[in-house]
Amino acid sequence: MNEIPDTEDAVEEYEVNFLYYSEYEDEKENKSIYDEETFYVKSLNELFAIIGVETFDEELFDTEFNETLGENSAAESSLISSGREPIWVKDSTGKVVWSEDDEDE
Length: 105
Fold this sequence. Notes:
Elements: E1 12-24, E2 31-41, H1 44-51, E3 79-90, E4 96-99
């Protein structure tokens, strides 16, 4: 879970579902898992910047994350790529405010 920002600023809570993945030379060793994380941010736009969803606020930027969640430690072939993709974002009421399906529309 991410740290809560300074309480002087308005804080919004969001739950984000991520797909963590890794791809190996031997496709049988590929791995993917879903994980949810809670974020406390000043705005939805700030959250989008943190999780890598396109934003128009150039002062915000994508933060580092733990890519090892999707890696296969038992793999014998070479790792080609790994990463995470946001799947959906829910606000504090449980309403989905963004999903990867929205980008296809």
